[in-house]
Predict the 3D structure of the following.
Amino acid sequence: MNNTIQLIVIAIIPVLFAIILHEVSHGYVAHIFGDDTAKNAGRLTLNPIKHIDPFGTILLPLLLILLGSPFLFGYAKPVPVNFNGLKNPKRDTGFVAAAGPVTNFLLALISFIFLKIILANFPIMNIYLAYFISHLKFQAVTGGVFFKFFIYPVTFMLFIGIMINLVLGVFNLIPIPPLDGGRVAVSILPAPFSDYLSRLEPFGIFIILILLLINPGNFLGALFNFIVNNIVLRNL
């Protein structure tokens, strides 16, 4: 199978899980704290069709793979939340916002645990995984049917799951609203600091886009390399 096609097939499940559960967690926590906007919109579901954003869910990850990017990134259609409908809007906004990154970090941890189990029981996968990390290519695999069609692809799904969830979690903690980190900061900062920061929200997406467009490779690439070298590989 062509390397690019193989990577797309293997990446689909972990990428969808990462970005969909990120959004569902926002809506679910908002529901807990009194806002049913996401629930009434039918967004508290794992059905990917309800969450797909044509660009962020499909085109962006696909382009990154086709361009041979060393990192994966994507997003789902934002879950609607009426922050004024929360029981305590200032406090609860922080919990709703934090739910997304926390979910990504939990998914990364779960993937990491299962990956460690596989690598401990199938040591040869350490070699295959190291080659993939170095070359972004898959090696020809030998072994039985169970190894070739389950252990081998699942190992890479778990690794990609770790990476996409850590990148999403860390990126969304940047303290610029409307990113989750910005909303958490607005929630916990006292006035007038929270007021100043909240006024950035209408312009926040443009600030983020400018940061990405100035040098997207350095910005996201540096984030990806930091996560790979200092978090993942150090603990595998």
User: Anything to note?
Assistant: The chain has one domain: 3-121+154-232. Residues 3-121+154-232 form one domain. The mean pLDDT is 88.
